[in-house]
Amino acid sequence: MKIRKIKNTAEKLKNGGRARQTDNRGLTLIELVITVAIIAIFSGVVMTFIMTGSSTYRSTSSNAKVQMETQELVDRMEDLIIDTNRSLYYANGTGENTGSEIKNDIKQSGDGNSDGNKTFIVCNEYKNNDGNTSKYICDVIDWDKEDATVYYSQREYTATSSSDDSGKNETEAAAFSEDEGDVSAFSPDEEDSGEQNVRNARTKVKRSVLATGILDFRADVTKVESDNIVRFQLSTENGKKEIETLHSVSLRNKVKVKKPADSGWR
């Protein structure tokens, strides 16, 4: 009897050892392959999510940067024109090549970008103590299509004061030459006559970059004299996508849309 119990006990110990050996075995090749495949699939999902999020962030960040830079340009132009007290003028070309006047070239649906340079001139008048002459300061914003750049410059001169509201004939500002110093004569426009006694014409601020990456520059001055409103349309680029923005500026003073006496602006 005792011998049988001993045999049973030995058999149980033997079977238990085998069970323990079975439980402690490692991964089979198939299990290892399946594990690696699961990890690869999971890693791919995670990487796709990360790349999608990164691409979205870059796109959003780039778009926000373009919008911010465009708004900065509009803010600077608004600062230049919002308090103007004399006149505004918008034309094709820049510098000595300033050409025909533009009233409104805001892009319509389906239109392409502008095919030439543009100039926007803001003129302010400040009367001198002599009662006869004024200092004229003109801010010049010009867009170069080839450079996709907006430039800024400023010139000033002394000339006969324009009329007030008493009914006197209005006189226009004088021409600017490329050289510093006095200017003895100018080419009057259709509303002016006689000499303007222009002198001390000079470049006050040399031409400098105001903004880059401007693919198109357009404006509307048709409502300046009636509603004191100027509209600007700017086109910029975000990656391969062109973005157009339209901005309105409300002027604080009544001004005229008036051509300068000479187109030789810098």
Write a concise keyword list for the protein shown above:
single chain; 266 residues; alpha+beta; six-stranded mixed beta sheet; three-stranded antiparallel beta sheet; 3 helices; 30% helix; disordered C terminus
Summed up:
Keywords: Membrane, Transmembrane, Transmembrane helix. By secondary structure, this protein is an alpha+beta fold.
How would you characterize the overall build of this protein?
With 266 residues, this protein is an alpha+beta fold. It has one domain. The chain is 30% helix and 31% strand. A hairpin with a 5-residue loop joins strand 2 and strand 3. The radius of gyration is 38 Å and the shape is rod-shaped. The protein starts with a helix and ends in a 9-residue tail after the last strand.
Lay out the secondary structure.
Layout: H1 2-23, H2 29-81, E1 87-92, E2 118-127, E3 133-144, E4 149-160, E5 199-212, E6 214-220, H3 224-227, E7 229-238, E8 241-250, E9 256-257
Parallel strand pairs: 1-9
Antiparallel strand pairs: 1-2, 2-3, 3-4, 4-5, 6-7, 7-8
- Overall body shape: rod-shaped
Average pLDDT level: 76
What is the domain total for the residues?
A: 1
Strand content: 25-35%
Distance between the termini: 123 Å
Total count of strands = 9
Q: Strand arrangement, largest sheet?
A: 5-4-3-2-1-9
**Which structural class fits the helix and strand makeup?**
alpha+beta
Radius of gyration, rounded?
A: 38 Å
Order of helices and strands: HHEEEEEEHEEE
Helix content: 25-40%
Sheet with most strands: 6 strands, mixed
Transmembrane segments: 27-51
Biased composition (Acidic residues): 177-194
Pfam families: N_methyl (PF07963)
Region (Disordered): 157-200
